[in-house]
C-alpha cells in the first residue's frame, strides 16, 4: 500500500507526512488512526478472556465505533484465538483486521491463514530491541535481531497487503539501533512502525522526544504510519500517547476501558476525548463516532466481567455526576462551567424514567433505537420478553436498566449446556442455609440440595454437585444497576479451571437469582471453551 487511500478507501495516515498530506486533513486537522487492541492486548489481562461469540460482538461494536484497525488476536496462540481472528476477518468488513505474530515464520504463516479472508488484513510482526530483552529473553545479538526483523517483515509483506512492525520494549532500546531497525523493516515492506512502551516506563516529554528522534532519523519514515503503543504501569499511558501525537505520531494503539497486560494499555476513550476536547491544542481528530464510546465500554465490561472504576475518566459512573451544590448550580446555569465535554458526545444514556409495565413493544423498540442499539427481530423478541419480566417486578424501567439488559444479554442469551430453571433458598441468621437448585441440562431437569455458609455458598455447592466438574471460584461481585430498593442487581462471577479463567454475568431484581445466573453462565463458558 502506498497510495493516498487504503484498501478501505480511508485516507491513509501513511501519506500524512508525505505527498498525500491534503487527503488526511478534515477541517485542517490531522486524522490520528485508532488501532484497537482490546481483543488482543486487552484480552491478555488476567481474568478478561472472551469466547468467540463475545469477541465477535466486541469487534462489531468497534467497527460501529469506527476504529481504523481491530487487532483481533494472536492467531498462533491457540486454536481458539486462530478461529476468532478468522471469524472476525470474515465477518467484520469495514475496518482493517490485524493479527499479532512473533518474528518467526510459523507465526507469520498462521496469522496470514487466519487473516486471508479479511477485506483489509494486517500482519503485525513484533520483535524486542532492548538490551535486556535481546540478551535474556531472545538470547540474540543486536545484529541477529536486525537481520531477523528485516527477513520476517519481508516474509509478512510477501503474504499480506499491509504489515506493521513493533520493536518490543522500544522505550528501553538504544535510539539509534531503533532507527536502524525501523529503516530496515520499512525498506522490507512495512507500512507502519510501532513504538511500544511495553513496560510503561516512559514519561511524556521523554517519549515525545524519542518519537521525534525516530521520525527524524529513520530512513524512509516520511511514507510510514508512525504508531505508539503505551502501557499504563505508571499511569502515564494516555499522557505518553498524546505526547507522541504532539511529536508527530499518526496512530495510537489503545483498548476500551484501558484493559491490557498488567496495569493495562492507553484507554481508547481517554485518548479519543482528549483529542476531540482539546482539538485546538492537538490540531488532530480521529475517525471515531464518539457517541458510541459509552455503550462500547459497557459491552466490554459486560463480556470481560471487568468493572469500570466509578471515577474512571470519560466512562466511569461519576464522570458526569456533579455532587457539590456550587457545581450543580453552575452546570444548571451553563453546562460549560464544569463540563468540558457533554455526556451526549460519548453517548451516556439519560437517567430519566422511561418505561413501565404498560409500555408496548413499539415503545420499547423505539427506546432501544433512541439509545443507539441495533437489534435483529429475534434479539428484540428476547429483549422485550425480558423487559416485560423486569417491568413486572420493578415499578419503572430506566435507560440504565435497559442498558444492563442489553449488556448482559450477550452472555445470558447464548444457549449453554446448563440453564437455571428454579431455586429455593432457606436462610436466616439463626439457621444453616439450604439451597435447592434445579438446572436444565440440554433441556433435561437436574436437581440438587446443599447446605452452606450462607445462601450463596449453599446455592453454589448445589450447582457444583449438578455439574460435577472441579473448578475454583476466584471472584464474585454484586452491584446495583440503579438506585432504588427494587433496583436490578448485576452479579459477576469468575471461576478458574487449570490455566483458564472464565467469567459469567447475571442480572435480576432478585440478587440471588442474578448470582445463580452468573455462576451458571461462567460454568457454560468454561465447558464450552474446554470443548
Ligand atoms: O506491549 C507491547 O510491546 C506489545 C507488542 C506486541 C506491540 O503488546
Ligand atoms: Zn502491549
Can you offer a commentary on this structure?
There is one protein chain. This protein has 531 residues and is α/β, with parallel strands linked by helices. It folds into three domains: 30-304, Aldolase class I (TIM Barrel), CATH 3.20.20; 351-412; 418-530, 2-Layer Sandwich (Double Stranded RNA Binding Domain), CATH 3.30.160.270. The protein is built from 20 helices and 18 strands. It has helices at residues 21-24, 38-42, 52-65, 79-91, 105-115, 131-138, 142-159, 175-187, 204-217, 237-246, 268-277, 279-282, 293-304, 325-333, 343-346, 361-370, 377-393, 399-412, 455-467, 511-530, and strands at 30-31, 33-36, 69-73, 96-102, 121-128, 162-168, 192-197, 225-230, 251-254, 284-285, 353-355, 397-398, 418-428, 431-441, 444-452, 472-480, 489-497, 500-508. The strands form five sheets. Strands 2-3-4-5-6-7-8-9 form an eight-stranded parallel beta barrel, surrounded by nine helices. A three-stranded antiparallel beta sheet has the order 13-14-15, with helices on one face. Strands 16-17-18 form a three-stranded antiparallel beta sheet. Helix 4 (79-91) runs parallel beside helix 5 (105-115), helix 8 packs across helix 9 and helix 13 packs across helix 18. The longest helix is centred in the C-terminal third of the chain and has 20 residues, at 511-530. Mean pLDDT is 89; it is low at 1-7 and 9-23. 3-methyl-2-oxobutanoic acid is lined by residues 41, 100, 126, 166, 168, 194, 196, 198, 229, 231. The site of zinc ion has 7 residues, from loops.
What's the short version?
The protein has 531 residues and is of the alpha/beta class. The protein has 20 helices and 18 strands.
Amino acid at each position: 500500500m502506498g497510495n493516498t487511500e487504503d484498501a478501505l478507501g480511508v485516507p491513509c495516515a501513511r501519506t500524512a507526512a508525505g505527498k498525500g498530506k491534503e487527503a488526511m486533513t478534515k477541517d485542517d486537522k490531522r486524522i490520528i488512526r485508532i488501532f484497537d487492541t482490546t481483543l488482543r492486548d486487552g484480552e491478555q489481562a488476567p481474568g478478561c478472556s472472551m469466547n468467540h461469540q463475545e469477541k465477535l460482538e466486541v469487534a462489531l461494536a468497534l467497527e460501529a465505533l469506527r476504529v481504523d484497525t481491530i487487532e483481533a488476536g494472536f492467531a498462533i496462540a491457540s486454536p481458539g484465538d486462530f478461529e476468532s481472528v478468522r471469524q472476525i476477518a470474515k465477518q467484520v468488513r469495514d475496518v482493517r483486521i490485524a493479527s499479532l505474530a512473533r518474528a518467526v515464520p510459523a507465526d507469520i504463516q498462521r496469522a496470514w491463514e487466519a487473516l486471508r479472508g479479511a477485506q483489509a488484513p494486517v500482519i503485525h510482526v513484533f520483535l524486542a530491541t532492548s538490551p535486556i530483552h535481546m540478551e535474556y529473553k531472545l538470547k540474540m545479538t543486536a545484529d541477529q535481531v536486525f537481520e531477523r526483523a528485516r527477513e520476517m517483515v519481508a516474509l509478512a509483506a510477501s503474504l499480506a497487503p499491509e504489515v506493521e512492525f513493533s520493536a518490543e520494549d522500544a522505550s528501553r532500546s538504544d535510539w539509534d539501533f531503533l532507527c536502524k531497525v525501523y529503516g530496515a523493516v520499512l525498506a522490507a515492506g512495512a507500512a507502519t512502525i510501532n513504538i511500544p512502551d511495553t513496560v510503561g516506563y516512559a514519561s511524556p516529554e521523554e517519549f515525545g522526544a524519542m518519537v521525534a528522534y525516530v521520525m527524524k532519523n529513520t530512513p524512509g519514515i516520511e511514507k510510514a504510519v508512525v504508531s505508539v503503543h503505551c502501557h499504563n504501569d505508571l499511569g502515564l499511558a494516555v499522557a505518553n500517547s498524546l505526547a507522541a501525537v504532539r511529536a508527530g505520531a499518526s496512530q495510537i494503539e489503545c483498548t476500551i476501558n484501558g484493559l491490557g497486560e498488567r496495569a493495562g494499555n492507553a484507554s481508547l476513550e481517554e485518548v479519543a476525548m482528549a483529542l476531540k476536547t482539546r482539538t485546538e491544542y492537538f490540531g488532530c481528530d480521529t475517525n471515531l463516532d464518539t457517541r458510541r464510546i459509552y455503550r462500547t465500554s459497557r459491552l466490554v465490561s459486560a463480556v470481560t466481567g471487568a468493572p469500570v472504576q466509578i471515577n474512571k475518566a470519560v466512562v466511569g459512573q461519576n464522570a458526569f455526576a456533579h455532587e457539590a451544590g456550587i457545581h450543580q448550580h453552575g452546570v444548571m446555569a451553563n453546562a460549560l462551567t464544569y463540563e468540558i465535554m457533554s455526556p451526549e458526545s460519548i453517548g451516556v444514556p439519560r437517567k430519566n424514567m422511561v418505561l413501565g409495565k404498560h409500555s408496548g413493544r413499539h415503545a420499547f423498540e423505539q427506546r432501544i433505537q433512541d439509545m443507539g442499539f441495533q437489534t435483529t427481530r429475534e434479539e428484540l423478541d428476547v429483549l422485550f420478553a425480558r423487559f416485560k419480566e423486569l417491568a413486572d417486578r420493578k415499578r419503572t424501567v430506566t435507560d440504565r436498566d435497559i442498558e444492563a439488559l442489553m449488556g448482559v444479554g450477550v452472555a445470558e442469551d447464548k444457549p449453554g449446556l446448563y440453564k437455571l430453571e428454579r431455586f429455593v433458598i432457606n436462610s436466616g441468621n439463626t439457621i444453616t442455609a439450604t439451597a435447592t437448585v434445579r438446572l436444565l441440562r440440554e433441556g433435561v431437569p437436574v436437581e440438587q440440595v446443599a447446605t452452606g455458609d450462607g445462601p450463596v455458598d449453599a446455592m453454589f455447592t448445589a450447582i457444583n454437585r449438578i455439574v460435577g466438574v472441579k473448578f475454583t471460584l476466584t471472584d464474585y461481585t454484586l452491584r446495583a444497576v440503579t438506585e432504588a430498593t427494587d433496583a436490578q442487581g448485576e452479579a459477576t462471577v469468575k471461576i478458574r479451571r487449570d490455566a483458564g479463567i472464565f467469567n459469567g454475568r447475571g442480572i435480576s431484581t432478585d440478587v440471588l437469582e442474578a448470582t445463580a445466573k452468573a455462576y451458571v453462565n461462567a460454568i457454560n463458558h468454561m465447558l464450552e471453551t474446554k470443548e
